[in-house]
Design a protein that fits this description.
Number of strands: 4
Helix content: 25-40%
Radius of gyration: 13 Å
CATH topology: Double Stranded RNA Binding Domain
Strand content: 25-35%
Number of domains: 1
CATH superfamily: Ribosome hibernation promotion factor-like
Number of helices: 2
Structural class: alpha+beta
Largest sheet: 4 strands, mixed
Length: 95
């Protein structure tokens, strides 16, 4: 499973990139046919100004989750939790 991280209008430090990879690599436990994960990190002008958009590619489908939070880490954790639930549901439907 390939995880591609894109930081929009800023440079993400290695610590943040490692955190994103670590959290999203766990998704493979819940659905083993993930072909790729695209992550977009961006800054917004409002109070919860960190935006994370995660797109998970699976055969025949794409699951997209977008969250805003005070920190990128919080938003990534929120996205990972939602994606876990969605992937479990997709897997149950296919079984």
């Amino acid at each position: 499973m390939e995880i591609r991280v894109q930081s929009i209008k800023f440079d993400a430090d290695q610590k943040l990139l490692d955190f994103v990879e670590k959290k999203l690599a766990r998704l493979e436990k819940f659905y083993d046919e993930i072909t790729g994960v695209d992550v977009a990190l961006s800054l917004l002008p409002d109070h919860n100004n960190k935006n994370v958009k995660v797109q998970v590619n699976i055969p025949g489908n794409t699951i997209v989750v977008e969250k805003n939070a005070k920190t990128f880490e919080d938003a990534v954790v929120d996205c990972a939790d939602i994606l876990k639930d969605k992937l479990v549901r997709v897997k149950e439907k296919r079984a």
